[in-house]
Amino acid sequence: MHDKLFSRLHQEHQEVKQIMIRMMNSGTEKRGNLVNELKTALLPHMEGEEKVFYTEIMDKNETHQITLEAFLEHRVARNLFNELENSRVDADDWLARTKVLKDILEHHIEEEESEMFEATEKIISHEKMDQIFKNYLQEEKGFKDRLAA
Ligand SMILES: [Fe+2]
Ligand SMILES: [Fe+2]
């Protein structure tokens, strides 16, 4: 995973996974803050991937199916996240929602880092990858700023 974009995405995946583990293991009083942390780590990441990375590989034969799948998993993850954000931290099913979101994200990350990154390396040039990386950072930052506003 020598590519700049892939290392960045990997690093962010690790962060999301860590937050989710803390969500599973923390007391009720920490849940609200952790949901906010997850929001800041997860939503700009997914937005950046969709806008500048997925769109780049969507129309290539080698990555078409896996990208369609990834878009759908993002949609499911967003919906589950929204439900979680709107549910009371002491709700009976808070932990169950968190667990389902965690499972989906872990599966999604696994597929991205194996199948998708590998297939992408074969079809996108290094110059193009650098460009995607720059655009990714910009898109992600823009989204973070809008979230914070
Ligand atoms: Fe990702
Ligand atoms: Fe993703």
Distinctive features:
149 residues, 0% strand, 5 helices, mainly alpha, binds fe (ii) ion, Four Helix Bundle (Hemerythrin (Met), subunit A)
Describe this structure in words.
The structure is a single chain. With 149 residues, the chain is an all-alpha fold. The chain has a single domain, classed as Four Helix Bundle (Hemerythrin (Met), subunit A). The chain is built from five helices and no strands. Helix 2 packs antiparallel against helix 3 and helix 2 runs antiparallel to helix 5. The radius of gyration is 16 Å and the shape is elongated. The N and C termini lie far apart (34 Å). The mean pLDDT is 96. The structure holds fe (ii) ion (2 copies). One fe (ii) ion (FE2) binds next to helix 2, helix 3 and helix 4.
